[in-house]
Amino acid sequence: MIAGSLIVLQARMASTRLPGKAVRHLAGRSLLARCLTRLLAGEAAPVVLATTTNSEDDALAREAEALGVQTVRGPEDDVLGRFVLASSSMDTRYVIRATADNPAVDIDAARRVLRVLVSSHSDYVVEHNLPHGAAVEAVSVEALRTADRLATAPADREHVTTFVKRARRDFKVIDLEAPRQLRRPDLRFTVDTLEDLQYMDAVLSSVSSVPVEPPLWSVIDAADRMASRAVCA
To answer: Which of 17, 2, 49, 35 has the alpha carbon at shortest distance from 134?
Structure first.
C-alpha cells in the first residue's frame, strides 16, 4: 500500500432508478458487499464507505462494518463534501474514488492509477476503455479540497471529480489506456436499472466462485460466453 492513500466508495440507498440497489443481491451477495470486497482484495489502500446521514443508510454502514470497513457519513446531495470529509478523517494525500454501482470493478485498477498519480505528481488519473463500470479514479486530496472550495454547480458536487477534469489548465490530469487484455468498452458492468442487476447476476453467477471475487478478465469471458449462447439460441 502507498502511504497516505485511501479508497473511498460512495453509496446510498436512495437511488432514483433502482431504490435500495446497494443491498440487492446478485450471485448470492449484495451489490455493496461485492464492491467493497473487490476493492479490499486489491490491497491498494484502506477502504472507507462514504454514505449519507439518512437513517435508511444505516443498513449500508452495518454491512460495511461486517466487512471491517469504516464508514464516514455526510450530506446526501454533496458527495464531494463527503469525500473531503473522508479524506480529512485520516492522514490522506491521495484518494481513489469508487462507486457502489460496479460489482465487477477491476480489482487491480486502484493500484494502477494510484501508482501513476503518485509517481507523476498529478492531480487526477483515470483509465479508459475498461468495461463500463470497471474503472476507478485517482485524485489528490489537494485537488479535492480545491474543488470543494470552488465548485458550486450541483453536478460538480454530486459527481466529485468533474470540476477537476474540466479545469485542465489548473490541474494536472492524466488519461491512461487500460491494459490491452481488459480493453472492452463495449461491455456494460454497472448497475443502474433492474435489467442491469439481472444481467450482472447472470454474468457473475456463471463465473467460478474460486476465487470468491474473480478477476476482471474472467468476468469478461463470462459475458462473452453469455453473448455467444444468446446468438446461437
So the answer is: 35
